[in-house]
Design brief:
The protein is an alpha+beta fold. The chain is built from eight helices and ten strands. β8 and β9 form a beta hairpin.
Length: 305
């Protein structure tokens, strides 16, 4: 085996590489790699190709290509290539190992330049970090502004509610208007509190201390029966129990009813909107069971002497 080819083969086998591995990495045809290792340069296309393949193959194996090229030129002087460095014979004749170089295939430097460029561009990284930080701060400020506006709107609504109680807490609040869905507002309630609510600034939330109790007529002390009439004034959920049996459990509206039942023992109503029901017991109008959206439960039982 020719000396150059012997050096190439030993270096390849020392790295546990096959000819197929070398061909895949260096993009040199397998036939040409075999020809280089066998010293059969006549099987290579041209002397220029031979020198190029030899240089790339040596660099791939981390060998200095100059002594090998010098040796190739001396053994094949008819190729006419310029002589390389004057140290080729020194390396080969002394039998010292040819120093390895850091070899990279022709496409590796391209792959390594990209991370180096990004890693070295500290100014660009700093600018990106500053932009991201500014965006985060801007988002936080926008959220805080939205929360502030929402809070102010709640203050305005609460202040409008407080205005109803700024004159005197003993006044009777009577609402007779209807809502958009044509439901009636709760019936009048009389305040039992004698405390006055002081005027406050527009931005202060004041919750008046008002204990409201509905006024309703008194039922007779003796009732041999409970005749219940139920008129629906507002949309509400209601459950009616007559003598222990549930006779109605549904979501009702003003279009429903009126309902009438007669209990021999007791009648019970449970509702999620006390203002939505108008109750009549034994032809005595008790009115609404309470304020709007208040859960109410009422029971009327038969009484005897």
């Amino acid at each position: 085996m020719e000396e150059i080819g012997h050096i190439l083969r030993e270096a390849r086998e020392a790295k546990s590489l096959t000819i197929d591995d070398v061909a895949e990495k260096t993009r040199i045809n397998e036939r040409f790699i075999t020809a280089l290792e066998q010293g059969e340069y006549s099987k290579l296309p041209t002397p220029a190709h031979t020198r190029g393949f030899l240089r790339n193959y040596a660099r791939f194996l981390h060998l200095d290509p100059d002594p090998l090229l010098e040796r190739y030129q001396q053994t094949n002087p008819k190729d006419g290539a310029p002589a390389g460095t004057g140290n080729a014979m020194t390396y080969l004749n002394s039998k010292r190992p040819i120093p390895e170089i850091q070899y990279q295939s022709f496409f590796d430097p391209v792959n390594k330049e990209l991370p180096d460029a990004f890693a070295g561009n500290s100014t660009s990284s700093g600018q990106s970090l500053a932009i991201i930080t500014a965006l985060i701060i801007a988002i936080i400020l926008i959220i805080m502004r939205i929360l502030t506006l929402t809070s102010n709107n709640n203050f305005t609504i609460q202040n409008s509610f407080n205005d109803l109680f700024t004159n005197n807490a003993t006044s009777t609040i009577t609402n007779t208007v209807t809502t958009d869905n044509d439901d009636l507002v709760p019936a009048p309630f009389t305040s039992n509190s004698n405390e006055a609510v002081s005027n406050t600034s527009r931005n202060q939330i004041v919750i008046p201390t008002v204990v409201a109790t509905p006024t309703r007529p008194t039922l007779p002390a003796t009732m041999n029966r409970v005749q219940l009439r139920l008129d629906i004034l507002e949309r509400t959920w209601v459950e009616v129990t007559i003598d222990g049996e549930i006779v109605l459990t549904d979501l009702v509206t003003r279009e429903d009813g009126p309902y009438e039942w007669e209990a021999l023992q007791e009648a019970k109503i449970l509702t999620g909107n006390a203002s939505g029901l108008f109750v009549t017991i034994n032809d005595i109008e008790l009115g609404r069971l309470g304020p709007r959206n208040q859960v109410a439960e009422e029971t009327w039982s038969v009484t005897t002497n």
